[in-house]
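seq as requested:
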Amino acid sequence: MVRQKLKRRRMSEDMQPQSKHEQRAGILAMPGYTTFQQRSAATGLVYDIFVHVPDAEAPASGFPVVYVLDANSDFIVVAETVKRASRKARATGISPSIVVGIGYPDTQAYNLDRRQFDLTRCSPDESALPDQPKGAHGGQAAFVAFIRDQLQSHIQQNYHADPARRILLGHSLAGYFVLDLLTQYPGMFAGYICFSPSIWWDRAGLSQSVGSLGSIQKALRIYMGVGQWEQEVAPWQAAESFSDRYHLVRQRRRMIDNAREMAGQIGAVLDDRSKIKFEVGDDEDHATVVTALLCRALRFVGGV
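struct tokens:
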């Protein structure tokens, strides 16, 4: 079923222009941003890539680069925050940075099939009551190869980017992907930001992979943030307006507890050169935590 879904999607994408890095006018109608499409050599699937470059003189080593997953939803939030906060970098602690968003064609928010396929390497833990659709999963290795071998190379060749200051940012299932990539390829980025990571997807597998972090060859910065109300109903919500399943999902997925425990587990294997920070956003929920904690995350992971 997964192959059939992706095949239909690929057929649709094959009708798009075939140039390797096609500039796409009109898809992101904001000044200072550019977009292009890139096709994965491994799967043939197409990605919409969004880029913001600072209007400032680049350091000798190049700008830091923040790679943003779920770009159709989150790129503008991150790019505008970086753009605004870095105008006075010495005051905010946030450097002018290139922001690169990785998104999908023909969507204004999330392509659930493509997203689940790219961000995971196994099926979800059924005890955590995963959402529909369930079919697409297991494409993580090809997605990682696309980022590492194609996208990062393109950014390095075409922009004044610092290869030693790459940051990966993701929320929810993309936050889980950030942690899963960290445990498998810790040297691929220097900084990792995950908000409300869906660790429940494969809690056991992620925990098993954490031990490999003990062999990293460079200093890392890791930020994990979750909202205070991700495991229970917030005071402004009426508990009775939600279904029994809604309450059970929050209980089973343990968004705060899983993140706190995982931060402790990762921190225990890092050497003195690397740092990890875990925060709970006061009065924030799953949907609000990114905008509430973004500057704190960028400051901790990137700095000036």
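Residues 7-26 have pLDDT under 50 and may be disordered.
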